[in-house]
Write a structure and sequence with these properties.
Elements (H helix, E strand, L loop, with lengths): L4 E6 L2 H11 L3 E8 L2 E7 L8 E6 L3 H12 L5 E4 L3 H10 L3 E9 L2 E7 L5 E6 L1
Parallel strand pairs: 1-4, 5-8
Antiparallel strand pairs: 2-3, 3-4, 6-7, 7-8
InterPro entries: Glyas_Bleomycin-R_OHBP_Dase, Glyas_Fos-R_dOase_dom, VOC_core
Organism: Brevibacillus borstelensis AK1
Pfam families: Glyoxalase
């Protein structure tokens, strides 16, 4: 068994698609109508046959509350791995990404946290 799709709640699919592709560098894999919203999935540019990330609309009250509470408590919604966190931090800063935590060594790993502008904090991690 393997993970093929995971999702993140977003408050605006168009804004999220732009942020995740233009700022973070993910590649759009699917973008199809799904009722009043769209089924939008992204993949890593480095692993285009890998796990897909769904930009899931937070239109359900439980989803919206979950997303808002995580953000209010400073809890990242998900985590992405990077090979060189300092280089990635500097690349994202240059693209205008706002970090809530600069790269910080935590035992065997280094983490940083940024705001995805769509209602989430995202953590990046270098092992």
């Amino acid at each position: 068994m393997k993970i093929i799709v995971t999702s993140i709640f977003v408050d605006d699919q168009d804004k999220a698609l732009e942020f995740y592709t233009e700022k973070l560098g993910f590649v759009k894999k699917h973008d199809v109508p799904a009722g009043e919203f769209r089924w939008i999935t992204l993949v890593s540019a480095e692993e285009q046959d890998g796990t897909e990330l769904v930009l899931e609309p937070n239109n359900h009250p439980a989803a919206k509350e979950y997303q808002q509470r995580l953000l209010a408590d400073g809890i990242p919604a998900t985590m992405f791995g990077v090979a060189d966190i300092q280089k990635e931090y500097e690349r994202l800063i240059a693209k205008g990404v706002t970090f809530t935590m600069e790269p910080t060594k935590m035992g065997e790993v280094t983490i940083a946290v940024f705001d995805d502008t769509c209602g989430n904090l995202i953590q990046i991690l270098q092992q």
